[in-house]
Amino acid sequence: MKKKLILESGDVFHGEGFGANFETSGEVVFNTGMTGYQELISDPSYCGQIVCMTYPLIGNYGINRDDYESIEPAIKGLIVKELCDYPSNFRNQLTLDEFFQKKKLSGISGVDTRRLTRVLRSKGVVKGKIVPADANENEVIEYLRTTDFPTNQVESVSTKTAYASPGRGLKVVLVDFGSKLGILRELTQRDCDVTVVSQNITAEEILLINPDGVMLSNGPGDPEDVKGASELINGLLGKVPIFGICLGHQLIGLACGAKTFKLKFGHRGGNHPVLDLKTNKVAITSQNHGYAVDQESLKNTDLEETHIALNDRTNEGLKHKIHPCFSVQYHPEASPGPEDANYLFDEFIGLMEGFKNEEPRIESQDYA
């Protein structure tokens, strides 16, 4: 079935549809990963977005039961250059096309993804819509330019009911702003007793659980749209160790008086170099975010910058100067991507143990 992708900028890309046969619209972004499309598709942080894969061949190892990052995908659509119809992998259970049909997702292949990526890098992230080939382009462009897309992405992907992943180690509350299962896996592998809670929980409700630490997860959308997060974080600071990842990192920044801004085209992929300002070491990281903490706004806060992105020098890590709280913009749990930063979960364990034993380790702890 012939389809086309229309951007609000007026650019049009023709291709072949796959998956469910219906129109879909969202913010169009690009991902530079060579692998990991299954984790990407099931990552809640892509809620409301149509993702362009810059690597030309997608679907070559199929879909399997083990690589999901959520039960139900929140992505709006996928754009690829070449779709593989016959995957070759011993774990393969479904083709990408079959998976998209079952999950009622829409995609388009045969697109000049190099040109599309250059458009997004030049003009910035724009809204787009995948439509039939005979759709009226002017009408679609007008729709995209005059329609405001939903801003409640976190609310739509966060768990509605708290649940537990039992362990015999430290007790961690994971606040689900759109959490990947990779975060839960890393905590349970360290025998943590994890309670996953909704994004609308209060600090008082968390403290009643009496956790050893609180993890603030990744998630989609503008951090300024997450109502109540600043009150939650300020109610926990100094009372329990906190570790924030991606959106959780941005929310810590906002709660402590910093500001965030929207990046022109975001960081999405598994090959982003990050510099640790303390050790001067570089880690190759997995990233997926469209917003960043404004470094200038950190000057009058109790936050210290710990990491920066080497591609554009934007902020990638923070540490509170007084309280046991730190965060990173990238994904130490990877899924997909390199595991250079996986040790940060061990640092979180050490921070919780030190706080539990009333040892002020936050000042001397090395997070890089």
UniProtKB/TrEMBL annotation:
Pathway: Pyrimidine metabolism; UMP biosynthesis via de novo pathway; (S)-dihydroorotate from bicarbonate: step 1/3; Amino-acid biosynthesis; L-arginine biosynthesis; carbamoyl phosphate from bicarbonate: step 1/1. SUPFAM superfamilies: Carbamoyl phosphate synthetase, small subunit N-terminal domain (SSF52021), Class I glutamine amidotransferase-like (SSF52317). L-glutamine binds at S45, G219, G221, L247, Q250, N288, G290, Y291. Its EC number is 6.3.5.5. Belongs to the CarA family. Small subunit of the glutamine-dependent carbamoyl phosphate synthetase (CPSase). CPSase catalyzes the formation of carbamoyl phosphate from the ammonia moiety of glutamine, carbonate, and phosphate donated by ATP, constituting the first step of 2 biosynthetic pathways, one leading to arginine and/or urea and the other to pyrimidine nucleotides. The small subunit (glutamine amidotransferase) binds and cleaves glutamine to supply the large subunit with the substrate ammonia. This is Carbamoyl phosphate synthase small chain.
